[in-house]
Design brief:
By secondary structure, the chain is mainly alpha-helical. Helices cover 51% and strands 5% of the residues. The strands form three sheets. It has a three-stranded antiparallel β-sheet. Strands 5-4-6 form a three-stranded antiparallel β-sheet, with no helix packed on it. Strands 7-8 form a two-stranded antiparallel ribbon. A hairpin with a 5-residue loop joins β4 and β5.
C-alpha cells in the first residue's frame, strides 16, 4: 500500500521493541496520527503488551483496573484535555473516569439531587453504593479541592454511568434479576472507589514530586543568579549554618513555580538582601576582635599624643574608617595581633594629624557653602562673625570648640528611629565591601563617625551682619585677630535701660546676641559707645 507508513514495513518484533520504549502519552499521540496507527495500537490482541509495558514503566502508577482498557486508562491519566470538547483540563475525576472542563459540566455531569428516582429506591442507604460519584466545586470541576477558590461542594455522577444504570434497571426492573443487578452494581462501584483511592495517592505523590523538582530547579536558578552577583562565597558559608540555610530555603520555595523574569524581580532582591545582611554580620564577627584591639591602641596613643596643630583628637571610629587603617584591619589573616599593634602604633601619629586637617577642611567647606561672599584668600574658620548653631541641640558654638561639639558624634542608640545599621541595606542593592566595613565599624563602636553637617553657620547671619555694620567692619572678611585689637565698644539699645547700659566688646556682643535675641524677636539695635 502506497499510503502505509514506512514503520509498518519493519519486522513486527522490531516495531514492538520500538513502541515499548514510548511513554503512554506518546502512544496516545501516535494513535491519533493515522487510522493505521489507531487500528494497530487499539487492537487488544496485538498492542496490549505495548500499553501494559508503557504503563508499568510509570513509577508507582496503580495497575489498570478491570473496568478500563489500557488505552482508556492511559487516556484518562495522561491525556490533558476534556473528554468532550478537548479543551485543556488538568483535573481528573477519578471516580467518574473522565476529564471534564467547566464548560462541559451540564453535558457530562449530573448533580446528586437530579438522579432518577429509582436510584434511591434500589438502595435506601446511599446511592453512592450503586453509582460512582465525585465531589466537585460549585465553581466548576476543574477547580481543585486544595484551591482557595473551591466553592460549595457538589456531589455529581457522570451522564454515562447514569444512562448505563438506567438501561440496566429498565431491563430487569420487573424480573427476578433486580437483586443480582444491585449486588453487581455495588461490587463494581466498590472496585472503582478502591482503585480511585490508589489513584488519589499516586496523584498526590506525583504532585509532590513535581513540586520538589520545581523547587530544586528554582533553587538552582536562584543560586546561579546570586553567584553572578558575587555572592558565591556567602552561599558557600551558608551550607554550614543550619538555621540560616532553612531561612534561605523558605525564601526560595515560597512559590513552587519556575523562576520567571517577573518572579525573579520579586524574590531575588529579598534573597540578595538576606545574603548581604548575613555577609555583613559574618564580617562584623570576624572584625570585632580587631576593632577592640584597635580602640585600645588608639586611646592609649591619643592620651599621650600632643601637638599644637591638632584642635580635636579623633576617636577610634574616625581613624578606623581611614583607607590606610582599613587595609590593615580588613585582612585579619594577613598579620598577627602583635604585628598589627606594632604597625598601627607606628602609623597612628601621622594619621591623627591627617584626620585633624581633613576635619578642619571639611568644616571650612561647610562654612563656605552656607555663607556666601567669602573671599577665597580668607580662612572662613577665622572670621570674627562666625557663630555655629547646632541643628540637634540648638546651642551656639564657635570655632575651634565646634570641632568637639558632642552632637557631631551620634551614638547609634541616640537615633531610635533609625534601624539597626546592618538592616538598612536597600532591597536589591549590592553592598560594597567598603560599605560593609563601615557599617560593621559603626555597630562595633556603637557610634557614628565625626560629622559636622549638624552645624549651621548661617543661623545668626542677619543679626551678626547688623552688629558688624554698626562696627564698620565687613563680616565676610574681618578676622578674629582684627577684632581682638579693635577698641570699639557697643551697647545693645534694645536691652539697656536709660540708667544702666551694657558696654560690650565685639565678642561679648556676639554672646549677648545669640543668647538673648532669638529668631522670633526683632533685631537688636546696636549703638557705638
Amino acid at each position: 500500500m502506497m499510503n502505509q507508513p514506512v514503520v509498518f514495513g519493519l519486522p513486527l518484533e522490531v516495531l514492538f521493541e520500538v513502541l515499548c520504549y514510548l511513554h503512554p502519552l506518546d502512544l496516545l499521540y501516535l494513535a491519533r496520527v493515522s487510522k493505521l496507527f489507531r487500528s494497530f495500537l487499539l487492537n487488544r490482541h496485538k498492542a496490549k503488551s505495548i500499553w501494559t509495558g508503557a504503563l508499568k514503566r510509570i513509577d508507582r502508577l496503580p495497575q489498570c483496573p478491570s473496568y478500563l482498557s489500557e488505552p482508556a486508562y492511559a487516556n484518562l491519566v495522561f491525556w490533558p484535555f476534556c473528554h468532550r470538547c478537548y479543551s485543556s483540563c488538568d483535573v481528573i475525576q477519578w471516580e467518574l473516569r473522565i476529564r471534564c472542563c467547566n464548560g462541559c459540566t451540564n453535558d457530562m455531569l449530573v448533580v446528586r439531587d437530579l438522579l432518577p428516582s429509582f436510584v434511591d429506591r434500589l438502595n435506601c442507604l446511599d446511592a453512592r453504593q450503586l453509582i460512582p460519584m465525585s465531589v466537585i466545586s460549585s465553581a466548576g470541576p476543574c477547580v481543585r479541592r486544595t484551591d482557595n477558590t473551591f466553592g460549595k461542594p457538589l456531589t455529581v455522577a457522570s451522564h454515562t454511568d447514569v444512562n448505563k444504570l438506567n438501561m440496566q434497571y429498565q431491563s430487569v426492573k420487573d424480573g427476578p434479576l433486580l437483586d443480582d443487578l444491585i449486588i453487581h452494581r455495588e461490587k463494581a462501584t466498590q472496585e472503582i472507589y478502591q482503585h480511585t483511592a490508589l489513584c488519589h495517592i499516586w496523584e498526590a505523590e506525583v504532585a509532590n514530586q513535581r513540586r520538589k523538582e520545581l523547587v530544586d530547579q528554582r533553587k538552582r536558578d536562584v543560586v546561579e543568579k546570586l553567584e553572578s552577583l558575587g555572592l558565591g562565597d556567602e552561599l558557600e558559608s551558608l551550607r554550614s549554618d543550619a538555621s540560616g540555610l532553612k531561612e534561605f530555603d523558605n525564601l526560595v520555595v515560597r512559590q513552587d513555580q519556575e523562576l520567571t523574569d517577573s518572579s525573579c524581580q520579586v524574590s531575588l532582591p529579598r534573597l540578595q538582601n538576606f545574603l548581604e545582611i548575613r555577609r555583613a554580620r559574618r564580617l562584623t564577627v570576624l572584625l570585632r576582635d580587631r576593632f577592640k584591639n584597635f580602640a585600645v591602641v588608639v586611646n592609649d596613643i591619643a592620651k599621650t599624643f600632643k601637638d599644637d596643630e591638632i584642635n580635636v583628637i579623633p576617636q577610634a571610629i574616625d581613624i578606623c574608617l581611614l583607607s590606610e587603617v582599613r587595609c590593615m584591619i580588613d585582612v585579619p589573616e594577613a598579620m598577627s595581633a602583635e604585628v598589627f599593634v606594632d604597625a598601627l602604633t607606628l602609623r597612628l601619629p601621622p594619621l591623627l594629624l591627617a584626620w585633624n586637617l581633613h576635619a578642619t577642611n571639611q568644616l571650612a567647606d561647610l562654612v563656605r557653602a552656607q555663607l556666601c561672599g567669602i573671599n577665597n584668600d580668607v580662612d572662613p574658620l577665622k572670621l570674627a562673625a562666625l557663630v555655629f548653631r547646632c541643628s540637634n541641640c540648638r546651642l551656639h558654638v564657635t570655632y575651634p570648640s565646634a570641632l568637639t561639639h558632642p552632637c557631631l558624634r551620634a551614638k547609634t542608640f541616640d537615633k531610635p528611629w533609625v534601624q539597626h545599621p546592618m538592616e538598612t541595606a536597600a532591597l536589591g542593592r549590592m553592598m560594597s565591601l567598603v560599605e560593609i566595613y563601615e557599617k560593621a565599624a559603626i555597630e562595633a563602636f556603637e557610634t557614628h563617625p565625626w560629622d559636622c553637617t549638624v552645624l549651621e553657620a548661617d543661623g545668626y547671619t542677619k543679626r551678626i551682619h547688623n552688629l558688624f555694620q554698626v562696627l564698620g567692619r565687613d563680616p565676610n572678611s574681618t578676622l578674629v585677630d582684627d577684632m581682638e585689637s579693635c577698641p570699639i565698644r557697643v551697647t545693645c539699645k534694645s536691652c539697656s535701660g536709660s540708667r544702666n547700659r551694657m558696654i560690650l566688646t565685639y565678642r561679648t556682643a556676639l554672646i549677648h546676641l545669640v543668647r538673648n535675641h532669638s529668631d522670633n524677636k526683632d533685631d537688636a539695635v546696636w549703638v557705638v559707645v
